């Protein structure tokens, strides 16, 4: 397993990558001040595995080699493994306050593992054997792998092959004896620059005419045909300011952006699906279910931070004992723990796939994520309520630091005794960052759209709802259907 330091150094050792940020090429993304906080967040997934007290959560025993591995490269072997995953994610969400990015690869690993097995069962292909070799290297090198699913999609009313521009979904443009050439882009890519490999999957269920779009493959992150365009997030330039105080979260951040596959060659050895359209929907549903489970961990950990920040600012304001403040904090905890309950429940109800690894309960995972599209917004609203108007009017730390005006800032913006003004400054900036600044992407926008926008969960919930079964229950009780269980006589 890599240490956090080795992980960061391994990113520096990647070959040259074409990266754009603010209209400029970035030669060394790892040490760029806008990007570094996201590297630190992902590095925590390595750090956790180094700390003895967390090893039960952060490490696992490889199902393939029997060796100890980081849990982020683990094929889940039991419901208990699924539960531990959520607990680990909550812990990491608490320690970073943001998205630590590595789960998309873990979720892709488990989804592709079972999907390749089932494709092979039907077609006699050897995708899983190839994927197994890839996974062995993944475990061995302790890679961060970017699970890449979301295509740009163009006109949402049209399928991939009906688009005016065929590249709006990643597709095979040429099949060769030694491999395939692909073109297209993946958007909303979490941790794209902090990964060693990119694992590409289709983004939706496909029809037979979309065979070129039914493609799953892996490429090294430093493949020279890839182009990365870094995404902006609100208040992201705060990271470039001299004083860290106004950043809110001074060490960690998320990372999102676009990856373009510009005629990328993939050897057959790294192709894990190619043309089997009827398996695309299943792969998407499994990946999404795992990632919707993940949100019952990471966003709960972020929620813990925000609830803590709201409780701290209430103390600084001198209102910690006001009954309405305690009531609001209780409501925040109730909402947050409800999300956690969903994350744990869909894990505990996990089932074994034909390939041997475990899949979450799909219905409960979708219910989990559906709640995540709502509750963090309410938790954020309550945090802003408790924070008060200073959340939107506080002078910059540069003013607090001036000799004379700084004295005035500290005099007129003094919190309740015995707290120093800077503590309230920092906590308010953290609440600002999480509810409307750069961390609001990780805590709110991702809660809404990550692992699929709300409607995608409702479609799955509808499909798994078993309304016929529920109707039969009702009919039996009111005498429309016979009650066979009632004792006779
Ligand atoms: Fe992991 Fe959460 Fe980030 Fe997804 S949003 S990669 S589950 S931390
Ligand atoms: Fe996400």
Task: Write up this protein.
It contains 17 helices and 14 strands. It has a six-stranded mixed sheet with strand order 2-1-10-11-7-6, with no helix packed on it. Strands 5-8-9-12 form a four-stranded mixed sheet. A two-stranded antiparallel sheet has the order 3-4. The mean pLDDT is 97. It is α+β, with helices and mostly antiparallel strands and 489 residues long. Helix content is 48%, strand content 13%. It has helices spanning 4-12, 36-50, 55-58, 79-96, 103-123, 127-141, 280-317, 323-348, 362-372, 375-387, 390-393, 397-400, 403-412, 421-435, 440-449, 454-464, 467-477; strands at residues 18-21, 24-25, 59-61, 68-70, 145-148, 171-175, 179-186, 197-200, 215-220, 226-230, 257-267, 271-274, 351-352, 358-359. The chain has two domains: 4-78 and 96-276, Butyryl-CoA Dehydrogenase, subunit A, domain 2 (Beta Barrel); 283-466, Up-down Bundle (Butyryl-CoA Dehydrogenase, subunit A, domain 3), CATH 1.20.140.10. Strand 3 and strand 4 (68-70) form a beta hairpin. Helix 1 packs across helix 2, helix 8 (323-348) packs antiparallel against helix 10 and helix 10 (375-387) runs antiparallel to helix 14. Residues 99, 190, 446, 450-451 line the site of fe (iii) ion.
Q: How are the elements arranged and paired?
A:
Elements: H1 4-12, E1 18-21, E2 24-25, H2 36-50, H3 55-58, E3 59-61, E4 68-70, H4 79-96, H5 103-123, H6 127-141, E5 145-148, E6 171-175, E7 179-186, E8 197-200, E9 215-220, E10 226-230, E11 257-267, E12 271-274, H7 280-317, H8 323-348, E13 351-352, E14 358-359, H9 362-372, H10 375-387, H11 390-393, H12 397-400, H13 403-412, H14 421-435, H15 440-449, H16 454-464, H17 467-477
Parallel strand pairs: 1-10, 5-8
Antiparallel strand pairs: 1-2, 3-4, 6-7, 7-11, 8-9, 9-12, 10-11, 13-14
The structure holds iron/sulfur cluster and fe (iii) ion.
């Amino acid at each position: 397993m890599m240490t956090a330091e080795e992980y960061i150094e391994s990113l520096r050792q990647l070959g040259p990558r074409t990266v754009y940020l603010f209209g400029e090429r970035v030669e060394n993304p790892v040490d760029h001040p806008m990007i570094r906080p996201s590297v630190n967040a992902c590095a925590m997934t390595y750090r956790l595995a180094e700390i003895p007290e967390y090893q039960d959560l952060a490490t696992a025993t490889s199902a393939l080699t029997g060796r100890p591995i980081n849990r982020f490269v683990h094929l889940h072997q039991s419901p208990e493994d699924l539960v531990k995953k959520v607990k680990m994610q909550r812990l990491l969400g608490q320690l970073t306050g943001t998205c630590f990015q590595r789960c998309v690869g873990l979720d892709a690993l488990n989804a592709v593992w079972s999907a390749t097995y089932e494709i092979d069962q039907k077609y006699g292909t050897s995708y899983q054997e190839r994927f197994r070799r890839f996974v062995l290297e993944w475990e061995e090198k302790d890679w961060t792998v970017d699970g890449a699913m979301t295509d740009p999609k163009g006109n949402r009313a049209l399928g991939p092959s009906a688009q005016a521009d065929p590249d709006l979904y990643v597709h095979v443009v040429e099949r060769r004896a030694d491999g395939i050439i692909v073109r297209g882009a993946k958007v909303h890519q979490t941790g794209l620059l902090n990964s060693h490999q990119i694992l590409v999957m289709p983004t939706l269920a496909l029809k037979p005419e979309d065979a070129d779009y039914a493609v799953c493959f892996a490429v090294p992150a430093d493949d020279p045909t890839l182009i990365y365009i870094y995404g902006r997030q609100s208040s992201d330039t705060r990271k470039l300011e001299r004083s860290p105080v106004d950043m809110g979260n001074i060490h960690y951040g998320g990372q999102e952006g676009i990856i373009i596959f510009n005629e990328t060659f993939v050897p057959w050895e790294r192709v894990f699906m190619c043309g089997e359209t009827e398996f695309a929907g299943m792969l998407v549903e499994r990946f999404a279910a795992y990632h919707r489970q993940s949100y019952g961990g990471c966003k709960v950990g972020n929620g813990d931070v925000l609830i803590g920040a709201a409780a701290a600012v209430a103390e600084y304001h001198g209102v910690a004992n006001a009954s309405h403040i305690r009531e609001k904090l209780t409501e925040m905890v109730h909402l947050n723990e409800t999300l956690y309950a969903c994350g744990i429940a869909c894990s505990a109800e996990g089932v074994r796939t034909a390939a041997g690894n475990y899949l979450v309960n799909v219905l409960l995972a979708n219910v989990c994520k559906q709640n995540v599209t709502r509750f963090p917004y309410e938790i954020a609203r309550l945090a802003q309520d408790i924070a008060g108007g200073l959340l939107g009017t506080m002078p910059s730390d540069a003013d607090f630091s001036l000799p004379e005006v700084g004295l005035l800032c500290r005099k007129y913006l003094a919190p309740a005794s015995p707290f120093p003004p800077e503590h309230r400054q920092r906590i308010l900036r953290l609440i600002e960052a999480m509810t409307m600044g750069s961390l609001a992407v990780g805590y709110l926008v991702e809660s809404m759209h990550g692992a699929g926008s709300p409607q995608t969960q409702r479609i799955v919930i509808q499909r798994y709802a078993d309304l016929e079964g529920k109707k039969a229950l009702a009919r039996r009780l009111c005498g429309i259907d016979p009650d066979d269980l009632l004792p006779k006589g």
